[in-house]
Amino acid sequence: MNRRLLLGSAMRALVVAALAAVSATSADALELIGQAGVLGEWELTGNLAATGARQEFGGPIVLKHTGICSADGPETRAGEIRLQLLGTSRVRATLTIDGTACTFRGRKSDAYVGMMSCYDRRDAPLRFWIK
């Protein structure tokens, strides 16, 4: 009977160690998917890496216009994002698209939701998910 308890405890410890290892490596990289624009007409994707600072990530992003108005296929823009997770329910980010820096502050509901502000254009809704 003691052997069974010992084996059960060892298995639980192994599972906890495996889960800790998975969460440690997943904190080094994030996958981002989302939508921008009043109608969600821009699809946003990116793979972000930890920047060394606590809960900060950065990397390239791609925006693809998914509206029906494009005659020669969807318009695509490339940019970069710097993202900081603030606790479990808030995020702050800077997106640089076509040389223009835009800021974003969002709260988490089913996704991170907020407004993206750029100095040279109107504020636009932005919603994204982090995997």
Structure explained in plain terms:
It is a single chain. By secondary structure, the chain is of the alpha+beta class. Helices cover 19% and strands 55% of the residues. It has an eight-stranded antiparallel beta barrel. The chain is globular and about 45 Å long. Residues 1-26 have low confidence and may be disordered.
Sequence of secondary-structure elements: HEEEEEEEE
Number of helices: 1
Q: What structural class results from the helix and strand content?
A: alpha+beta
- Proportion in helices: 10-25%
Q: Unreliable stretches, pLDDT < 50, 5 or more residues? A: 1-26
* Shape summary: globular
Supply database-style keywords.
131 residues, alpha+beta, 8 strands, globular, disordered N terminus
